[in-house]
TrEMBL record:
Keywords: DNA-binding, Pyridoxal phosphate, Transcription, Transcription regulation. GO terms for molecular function: DNA binding; DNA-binding transcription factor activity; pyridoxal phosphate binding. This is DNA-binding transcriptional MocR family regulator. It comes from Zhihengliuella flava. It comes from the Bacteria. In the C-terminal section; belongs to the class-I pyridoxal-phosphate-dependent aminotransferase family. Residues 26-94 form the HTH gntR-type domain. Gene3D superfamilies: Type I PLP-dependent aspartate aminotransferase-like (Major domain), Winged helix-like DNA-binding domain superfamily/Winged helix DNA-binding domain. InterPro entries: Aminotransferase_I/II_large (IPR004839), HTH_trans_reg/aminotransferase (IPR051446), PyrdxlP-dep_Trfase (IPR015424), PyrdxlP-dep_Trfase_major (IPR015421), Tscrpt_reg_HTH_GntR (IPR000524), WH-like_DNA-bd_sf (IPR036388), WH_DNA-bd_sf (IPR036390).
């Protein structure tokens, strides 16, 4: 046994509530050990959490001391717990959490920062927090869904394993989701891709020749613009306002730029957070039609509503011509690396051929996992939605206190806040925050022109509240430094 200070403790009654009723068909120790293991595997019991003592759990569950002792021993033998002097039994992920996993942006790195989203000391206290990433953690129960998919996998092993358009079960699930949202869709209209960016890339290669022009609102999601440019597409910008898409400005920009395609983010726009109304969507597709341009609609954030489900139709409900790109990275889990394209029947054959020039299909196991997830729900898990709503409100409340001269609109969905600064200092703030262990992407990262937007800063709220509680005071101190109100060292609180 070694000595360690746990990062958090779990009460016996709380654990009993999380475990639920025992499975009478199994030995009590096996049920207890496996139930705790699943809580750890699903992320409901965090790595480094001290479990209740054996005596406390005996009282809470009404089990024998021998049963609880044997269950804890089983957890230790399988690597899901360890014993420590003075701390008791501590839950752990076998081998420890894997570093990295953040969403790479053009100005960021591609490796770990020393932790899953940053760094932490031996007691789990953050020493660095990555606020360049806006993506939620995996939903509860994902490990079990993978196990179910593994049980299904033998049916696919007899063949060569290539499904260039996607596994039929997943294409059917995606098509059914569009139909439920008011857009009748055949599975034949769906092409599964390795994420939304792969979908944007395939659509661009189909609709635009190298040297062609695509229109994009600025700010926008930078990786999509990078994907277009890698194909040799010239990207023209049209501003998006704090109120959302300006259809009149879009109409003029389509006419003046000669764009034959437009990257459209109508749903909880990343990073602005706005949601286009049905009336705006109808006028938007009318503008595209009049200009002879095709919309490449990025629906990555479409299911990320936080307050109440919006009463809006997909852009494809207003036009037969748009190409829609979706993704599981925000609604389910980034580690799945799966997306899809929904295209008109007239384009799907050509789009499939273009897509096969990029790769020959996504991993079968991950597709089976996503098919099962979508059959249960195509949206955020309720637990994830509640957590995101709470951290969104927490960041807004803390910013009102610590960063009182910043301005922000409360978005009804999405994963980040788009703050307006009182002066153009986004890049300087990014540097000052990095010296304090808070990693940010300056406003210029989201500009189509790769510069400007110095009055703006995106702050994600997908991180844990513990990380945000650590990062926000340091961000406020960095802002004081930029404004000439604080020394270079020292941290508030």
């Amino acid at each position: 046994m070694s000595t360690v200070t746990p990062s958090r403790r779990l009460g016996s009654h709380r654990l009993a509530a999380m475990l639920g009723s025992p499975d009478a068909s199994r030995p009590a120790y096996a049920w207890l050990a496996d139930s705790i293991r699943q809580l750890i595997a699903n992320g409901r019991l965090l790595h480094g959490t001290a479990l209740p003592s054996e005596r406390q759990l005996v009282t809470a569950l009404g089990l024998s001391r021998t049963t609880v002792s044997r269950a804890y021993a089983e957890l230790r033998d399988r690597g899901y717990a360890s014993a420590h002097v003075g701390a008791g039994t501590i839950a752990q992920v076998p081998g420890g959490p894997v570093a990295g996993g953040g969403e790479p942006l053009p100005l960021g790195g591609f490796g770990p920062h020393g932790g899953s989203r940053g760094g932490s000391d031996d007691e789990g206290t953050p020493t660095a927090v990555d606020l360049t990433c806006a993506a939620p953690s995996a939903p509860v129960g994902l490990a079990e869904v993978y196990q179910e998919a593994l049980d299904e996998l033998p049916a696919y092993i007899g063949g060569m394993g290539y499904f260039p358009l996607g596994v039929p079960a997943l294409r059917e699930a995606i098509a059914a989701d569009y139909a439920a949202r008011g857009v009748p869709t055949d599975p034949e209209q769906i092409v599964v891709t390795a994420g939304a960016l792969a979908g944007v890339a395939a659509a661009a290669r189909l609709l635009l020749r190298p040297g062609g022009v695509a229109l994009a609102e600025s700010p926008t999601y930078p990786n999509s613009v990078t994907s277009l440019r890698h194909h040799g597409v010239r990207v023209a910008a049209v501003p998006i306002t704090a109120e959302g898409t300006d259809v009149e400005a879009v109409t003029g920009a389509l006419r003046s730029s000669g764009a034959r395609a437009m990257l459209c983010l109508p749903d909880f726009h990343n990073p602005v957070g706005t949601l286009a109304s049905n009336e705006t969507r109808e006028r938007w597709v009318a503008a595209l039609r009049a200009a002879g341009a095709t919309g490449i609609v990025d629906e990555t954030c479409a299911k990320l509503w936080l307050d109440e489900e919006p009463d809006v139709l997909p852009l494809a409900a207003f036009s037969r011509d748009v190409v829609t790109v979706g993704s599981a990275s925000k609604s389910h889990w980034g580690g799945l690396r799966l997306g899809w394209i929904r295209a008109p029947h007239a384009l799907i054959g050509a789009l499939a051929r273009v897509r096969m020039n990029l790769d020959l299909g996504a991993p079968v196991l991950d597709q089976l996992v996503l098919a099962r997830l979508m059959q249960r729900s195509s949206s955020l898990a309720p637990h994830t939605r509640r957590q995101l709503r709470s951290t969104r409100d927490f960041v807004i409340e803390q910013a009102a206190d610590l960063l009182a001269d910043w301005r922000v609109r409360r978005p009804a969905g999405g994963l980040s806040l788009w703050f307006e600064l009182p002066e153009p200092a986004s890049t300087r703030l990014t540097a000052a925050a990095a010296r304090r262990g808070v990693l940010l992407a300056p406003g210029s990262t989201f500009a189509v022109a790769d510069h400007g937007l110095e009055h703006w800063m995106r702050i994600p709220f997908a991180q844990s509240q513990q990380e945000l509680e650590w990062a926000l005071p340091r961000l406020a101190e960095a802002w004081d430094e930029v404004r000439g109100r604080a020394p270079l060292t020292g941290v508030r609180g």
